[in-house]
Amino acid sequence: MAKSKRIRNFLFQGHRYLGLVLGIIIAIAGLTASMMIVMLDTEEFFIRQGIEEVVPQGERLSLEVLSDRAKDAPIAQGYSTVTSISPYTFPNRPLDSPVTVSLSKPNNEDDWIDVILNPYTGKVLGQAPERNVYETVLNLHYTLLAGKAGGIMMGVTGLLGFILMVTGIALWSGWRKLATGFKIKWKGHLKRRNFGIHQVAGIFSGIFLSLALFTGFIYNFPDFTYPLIYQLTFSPVPPEEFVSTPIAGKSSITLTAALDAIKREIPEGIFTQIDIPQTATDVYQVRKKVPGDWYGNPTWGRSFAQVDRYSGKVLSAIDITKASLGEKIANGMDIFHFGLFGEIFGRILYFCVGLSPTILLMTGFTMYRLRRRHPKLQTQGDRSLIKH
């Protein structure tokens, strides 16, 4: 019994001080995650409000033709380089989905626009809303707007935050008596009320927040974590980079030829993202969503391929439904980082999970201040947490 109390006291002290040190950073990560969920899930709605409806009629035009139409559009003046194409802007509704062509200024990929077109008529429907706010929120989420150093800090926070959540789950009073784990004494002392809110919010969000934090650590340290995933699952490690090999006197193959080559390797599914090679050694990089891919977000898809821009050789083609375990894990972490499961239910759940660190920070810090101000309450409070 004494040993059990010492262990719980150790966990409690570690949980308390990790929370004090990491609380604000994790709260920022959670709030920005919730903001991004809202932005992404309302993006289709706002895009559709600004363009006319796409009515299916016959065959879709080739992507080369649509790319040329996008470059010739008045709204694209000065933007002449095609960098990427989304054949189905809304893959969950492929028949009436427009095409989005991303164009940049020559030799300046950071200055770009998205032109939306009717895939059947080639008519330019408009320009996608700029995502400057979203990009800023995303950068804040991953790097705290502090570049590489911020990315390292967020990665470390993800790992330590995972430990913070595991210790919190271990300390939950409901393990000893289920009813107490979900009890909030609204009319009790401020310390008890905060403790109740803290543990209830923590246990409801704990598992999902733990997954989000741990996958965040993996994302921010890919050079270490991804090879480890492949090693632990005994899966072949894919090459770090694919390059095209220039052939004297031969120009780049067409986009249609590249896609036809990929179709021979991965015949089923729809193309969701195509990155156009920009330099002599770049490759065509393509994503597909294939039947059986249970990836919750229909915009992406986890099957992908790379094609040499000169020879047309498929350098890599992975159908995620037939991939190795390591590949499935490495490319499936978004499911648990962003709540891409259960369709709208998963998004609502992770929106709430993103708010929970702020609640945990406020209630945890309030309890800490009360203990600092009132030594008697501090001793009594610590004992109650360990006991229950």
Range of strand content: 5-15%
Anisotropy-based shape: elongated
Overall residue-averaged pLDDT value: 89
Please indicate the count of domains.
Answer: 3
Structural class designation: alpha+beta
Count of helix runs? 12
Oligomeric state, counting identical vs distinct chains? single chain
Low-pLDDT parts are: 378-388
Most strands sheet: 8 strands, antiparallel
Largest beta sheet: strand ordering:
4-3-2-1-5-6-7-8
N-C termini distance: 14 Å
Number of beta strands: 8
Q: How do the SSEs run, as a string of H and E?
A: HHEEEEHHHHHHEEEEHHHH
What is Rg? Answer: 25 Å
Helical content stands at 40-55%
Task: Record keyword descriptors for this entry.
53% helix; alpha+beta; 12 helices; 388 residues; Nuclear Transport Factor 2, Chain: A; 3 domains
Layout of helices and strands:
Layout: H1 2-49, H2 63-72, E1 81-86, E2 99-105, E3 108-117, E4 124-127, H3 132-143, H4 147-171, H5 178-181, H6 190-220, H7 222-232, H8 255-265, E5 270-275, E6 283-289, E7 303-308, E8 314-318, H9 325-330, H10 333-338, H11 344-373, H12 375-387
Antiparallel strand pairs: 1-2, 1-5, 2-3, 3-4, 5-6, 6-7, 7-8
Helix pairs in contact: 1-3, 1-4, 1-11, 1-12, 3-4, 4-6, 6-11, 11-12
